[in-house]
Write a structure and sequence with these properties.
single chain; 312 residues; alpha/beta; Rossmann fold; six-stranded parallel sheet; two-stranded parallel sheet; 11 helices; 40% helix; 14% strand; globular; oxidoreductase; isomerase activity; EC 1.1.1.271; GDP_fucose/colitose_synth
């Protein structure tokens, strides 16, 4: 790869964007002479093609890490399914087409394990992406990324992380992802002396991955991964835990000793989405993921330090 390069990170103020910024600025992830630009929605509304082109023309990136998306937890997706679909199709199309038009060398996009079918065999792997046919998932929008890669033959690719969490996540109880919402909910219950009410049975199982691990892996993909086909970024199948187990870890991290109760009248969502990380392990057999209990503790500590801004 030729140096120096100019890397534009869309969604740079979000969960994964902030993780990449941390790796670049504090872990030696930036090489000499490189320029890294972390965009937020205040810099450009990527739903608008004009604003998208303007920001690309301003910075003239050689490489793009595309993280910008309309995102949220299960219940927000259920309420606003159509709007998620429409906004994400526009964002992805604008970013990829502009990158193509302006000769960007490489784009690394971020998909979601939710792009896989509801009814499938487990574990899911990268070969199953092209068989996805459901139009009901709000994550159908990223499929235009895959078609874009294949159509033009660029060195554009995508990572597919499972259940990311960490500092700078959306901790909103109603709209946040499961772990971050539960951290806020548990912290609030501790302060108020009330039980923690968990939506669903607690039985669904998930592979949670710490945002800094995702940031490190995305930078590796940008620099070293030469395939066009996506790659799943996940802890191993053996590290999958139930929501109940995750809640117990949160309670321990926050020293919450009250009652935890599960509301089985509310949807569990998918009971499992087990992903296979064997492709990643072929490339990086020695990569060490942050243990879940340790990652939850660090995220809880960050949340408590930043409570006034993070809880909204």
């Amino acid at each position: 790869m030729d140096w120096p390069m100019c890397v534009l990170v869309t969604g740079g103020s979000g969960l994964v964007g902030k993780a990449i910024e941390h790796v670049v600025q504090k872990e030696g992830g930036k090489h000499e002479g490189e320029q890294w630009i972390f965009l937020s929605s205040t810099d450009a509304d990527l739903v608008d093609v004009g604003q998208t082109r303007a920001v690309f023309e301003k910075y003239r990136p050689t490489h793009v890490i595309h993280l910008a998306a309309k995102v949220g937890g299960l219940y927000l997706h259920m309420r606003e399914n159509l709007q998620f679909l429409r906004d994400n199709i526009k964002i992805n199309d604008n970013v990829l087409q502009t990158a193509h038009d302006m000769g960007v060398t490489k784009v690394v996009s971020c998909l979601s394990s939710c792009i896989f079918p509801d009814k499938t065999t487990y574990p899911i792997d990268e070969t199953m992406v092209s068989s996805f046919k459901s139009l009901y998932s709000p994550n159908v929008a990223p499929l235009n990324m895959i078609l874009f890669f294949w159509q033009y033959g660029h060195r554009y690719t995508a990572v597919i992380p499972t259940n990311v969490f960490g500092p700078y996540d959306n901790f909103n109880i109603e709209n946040g992802h499961v772990l971050s919402a539960l951290i806020n909910k548990t912290y609030k219950a501790k302060k108020e002396g009330t039980p923690v009410n968990v939506c669903g049975s607690g039985a669904p199982r998930r592979q949670f991955i710490y945002s800094l691990d995702v940031g490190r892996l995305i930078i590796w993909v940008l620099r070293e991964y030469e395939e066009i086909d996506p790659i799943i970024v996940s802890v191993g199948e053996e590290d999958e835990v139930s929501i109940k187990e995750a809640v117990d870890m949160i309670a321990q991290a926050l020293d919450f000793k009250g009652k935890i109760q599960f509301d089985t009248t509310l949807s569990d969502g998918q009971m499992k989405k087990t992903a296979c990380n064997s492709k990643l392990r072929r490339y990086l057999p020695d990569f060490t993921f942050t243990p879940l209990k340790e990652a939850i503790k660090m995220t809880c500590d960050w949340f408590m330090t930043n409570y006034d801004t993070a809880r909204t």
